[in-house]
Specification:
Distance between the termini: 10 Å
CATH class: Alpha Beta
Oligomer: single chain
Number of domains: 1
Order of helices and strands: EHEHHEHEHHEH
Structural class: alpha/beta
Strand content: 5-15%
CATH topology: Rossmann fold
Number of helices: 7
Radius of gyration: 15 Å
Length: 171
């Protein structure tokens, strides 16, 4: 199954994806990790074009992994999926791979996202150099609602509750 982790920066997508992958023996494919593996520091653009390219690499990797083990969970992480075409591309790719898909959308309060983003920046805990509260606000201002079936998880709730909601979504 392909699981699209959607939501604004700092909402907890990566944290939840890692935990769900650990509990399902799944794999997390992270756009930022792939970007840094492919491009040198001076080639990183943080552009939609480069993001789309990295997502295509993620989908190709997902296809390869699913050929090896069709029952595997693949979590697509590192992108807000703030545009409908981005979600559509993943759903179409899942169909071409004959895989079911799920969308988990992580949300939290603006205050929580700001705190997480500031903590990550201070600790140097995230690969994306453009990931800050200003980016959060920019993405939020242009976020296109996901109209396909999805599970929305409020990441301000206790971690075990969020994880259980995520596990339920995978059924």
């Amino acid at each position: 199954m392909i699981v699209l982790m959607a939501g604004l920066p700092g909402t907890g997508k990566s944290t939840l994806a890692r935990e769900l992958a650990a509990r399902t023996s799944g794999r997390v494919l992270n756009k930022d990790a792939i970007r840094h593996a492919i491009f040198s520091v001076d080639e990183i653009e943080y552009s939609s074009r480069q993001d789309d390219f990295c997502l295509q690499v993620m989908m190709d990797t997902a296809g390869y992994l699913l050929q090896q083990q069709p029952s595997r969970f693949i979590f697509l992480d590192g992108r807000p999926f703030s545009r409908r075409y981005q979600v559509s591309n993943v759903v179409s790719a899942a169909a071409s791979l004959h895989q079911p898909w799920r969308i988990i959308e992580c949300v939290c309060s603006d205050e929580t996202a700001k705190r997480r983003l500031e903590q990550d920046a201070a600790a140097g805990a995230h690969q994306a150099g453009n990931r800050d509260y200003q980016l959060y606000l920019e993405v939020k201002s242009r976020y296109e609602a996901i109209t396909l079936p999805k599970t929305v998880i409020d990441m301000d709730c206790p971690p075990e509750f969020c994880i259980q909601r995520g596990m339920d979504a995978l059924r």
